[in-house]
Design a protein that fits this description.
binds zinc ion; 7 strands; single chain; 5-stranded mixed beta sheet
Amino acid sequence: MSAENPQQKNDSGIYHFHMDIPIPAYLMALAVGDVEFRAIDERTGVYADPVMLDKAHNEFAEVGNMVDVAESLYGPYRWGRYDILVLPSGFPLGGMENPKLTFATPTIIAGDRSLTNLIAHELAHNWSGNLVTNATWNDFWLNEGFTVYFERRLTEKMTDKSYADMLWELGYQDLEKTTEGMKEENNMKDSHLKIDLKGRDPDDGLTDIAYEKGALFLKHIENNVGRERMDAFLKGYFDAHAFSTITTEKFIDYLNENLVKGDKALAEKLNIAGWVYGPGVPADAPKADRERFEKVDAEREKFLAGTAPASLNTQNWTTHEWLHFLRKMPKPLSNEQMAALDNQYNFTTSGNSEIADQWYVMAIAANYEKAYPAIDDFLGRVGRRKFLEPLYEEMMNTGKEAMARDIYTKYRANYHPLAQGTFDKSVLKQKS
Ligand SMILES: [Zn+2]
């Protein structure tokens, strides 16, 4: 439970939980199953299905250090223990920042700790979200935008700037895609940071606007005031609003009183109203340094000009470099190009869920049938909506409605009701 947990199984099956810190209702969560605990260090540890425990424990070995680094950035971790619960594959989300116990998808267990950035995100929520909570879902960006910013700062401190810059760039690409979609649907009001969900499902606000535009706004502030002032401001913000809720308007007042302080030139540069109450991505949005991705771009260009994959320089590439390499490929590639890449890099059998998912989208677009059994298997074993959505969408968009329907019908029972709701509509064309 999102509380103090008993760490050992017992014969009676009766367990007691204790929580002495008040939390908002959306953070109360209970999981029931055969789970075992293993400590990482004195205050961190992992709960998982016994067959997953070794793998999970190894994947999260750096989490204890991660909490220390987070504290060094924005002040004390105030929740006592920080543990992670690895959920079954039907969990529809990446993670959920339940206090004391982050709930996580098993899809981040890649075997090489390359996807634990998601844990940095959930951990950061213990400041932005759990400690200082958005007052309404219209202010959701205060939870998520702050958390993405915090997460990237944390990741940067644990790796380096060039690594964090790749995350910023990938996030920016997601954001552009989202705002373009909103433009097409003539729905630019949802691209404001402060949104209006009156009469709507709060789930509608769960877009990259809150996450990526929110984070970008904070980076934009950082770029204008310098990192030192920004960090002092954020630390003060978390202290001043600890264990309370906050609206967008209250945040802007606080920002003006504690950072802008009547500096008219700064206020103009920050363009607060444009960012918060305006559409899309403002023209003054910060751009990430693309140094590492430019190298990737060059290798992709070489491949597209006919260089064999074996001759490309992909040494020391991380998950993010591979994702960028694949994402920016023209769609569809020819079957020959797909086969050449696959033979060299074994994408079809990748154990990295992010890379596999991107590759499978490309395989569907290219009618690369060699990957179809792996796609079927992936869709049967993964329940994370972020991964399911692009695959079913690509099938629906490329004339493979029957394939989508067959696979979805076969695995529907494995999926969480949240995911079922999404795909009953998009794949089965059922009205909600
Ligand atoms: Zn989040």
